[in-house]
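Supplementary Note 2. Why include the ligand at all?

Several targets in our set were suspected to adopt different conformations when bound, so apo predictions alone were not considered sufficient. For every target with a known small-molecule partner we therefore ran a joint prediction. The input for FE2/S2 (inorganic) cluster is given below.
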Amino acid sequence: MSPHVIRPDGDPVGRCDRSLTVTVDGMPVAGVHGQTLATVLLGDGRSHWRTATTGSPRGVFCGIGVCFDCVATVNGVADVRLCRRPARDGDTVATQTRLAGETK
Ligand code: FES
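The joint prediction is reproduced in token form.
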């Protein structure tokens, strides 16, 4: 067993993970309360969810809300930093693509 995996009944802090589901480009993705949307997507095996104007993939770079590499559209709001946004059950995430020449 990984030292990072703590069973709920053995957690000295008393944490009790509650599951949640977000939708990413129409696909359900499972997470737990307390995660950011970025960690939910990373936990699902996704390394990127935005395409830069150069065409290169972008995901988490700084992880602390500084670089804006991790932005996506959340519940219809564009350019949300997923590394700073707590995941909420029922959130809808849409990946973003801005190729050179596009304004939005
Ligand atoms: S990873 Fe840098 S702002 Fe989110």
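The pocket of FE2/S2 (inorganic) cluster is lined by residues 60-63, 65-70, 81, 83 (CB under 6 Å). The radius of gyration is 15 Å. Comparable summaries for the other entries are listed in the accompanying table.
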